[in-house]
Task: inverse folding
């Protein structure tokens, strides 16, 4: 069986650094267990000293297959995310796949709230809970199920089944 490689750009807000890093910490070991998929990961902490910030991020998005969008109120309020990252993954100018994940609880969707178009997408949550609303083994469950969703999206396994 051939192994497929998928490149994922991690899109998150600096104000959510701790839960974002914890989710990645929980997620990466499970992603490494897949025999039919290799996941290559990039986030802005991979920038090297002297590397130009905005241009490098745009280049990594160009190379990505998907953006793992770690959603929170801070994320949806970040001018950098809204200007440089989110339009590549969501809305009429999107040219990359989006994997939206509820990192932190969000308001209920509805008129009167601007969710920048992510409310039109199926967002990953575990039994309706954001990552930060889980603890202990439920965090492991969250990461394991998210890894499976990443695999399904990357391999195009979202059609009819018998």
Result:
């Amino acid at each position: 069986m051939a192994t497929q490689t998928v490149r994922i750009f991690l899109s998150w807000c600096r104000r959510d650094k701790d839960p974002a890093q914890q989710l990645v910490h929980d997620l990466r070991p499970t992603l490494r267990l897949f025999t039919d998929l290799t996941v290559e990961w990039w986030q802005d902490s991979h920038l090297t000293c002297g590397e130009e910030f905005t241009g490098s991020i745009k280049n990594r998005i160009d190379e990505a297959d998907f953006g793992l969008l770690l959603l929170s109120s801070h994320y949806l309020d970040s001018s950098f995310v809204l200007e440089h990252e989110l339009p590549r993954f969501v809305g009429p100018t999107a040219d990359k796949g989006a994997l939206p994940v509820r990192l932190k609880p969000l308001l209920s969707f509805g008129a009167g709230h601007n969710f920048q178009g992510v409310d039109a997408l199926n967002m990953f949550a575990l039994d309706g809970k954001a990552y930060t609303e889980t603890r202990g083994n439920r965090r492991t469950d969250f990461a394991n199920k998210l890894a499976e969703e990443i695999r399904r999206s990357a391999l195009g396994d979202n059609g009819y089944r018998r």
Remarks:
- The longest helix spans residues 137-155.
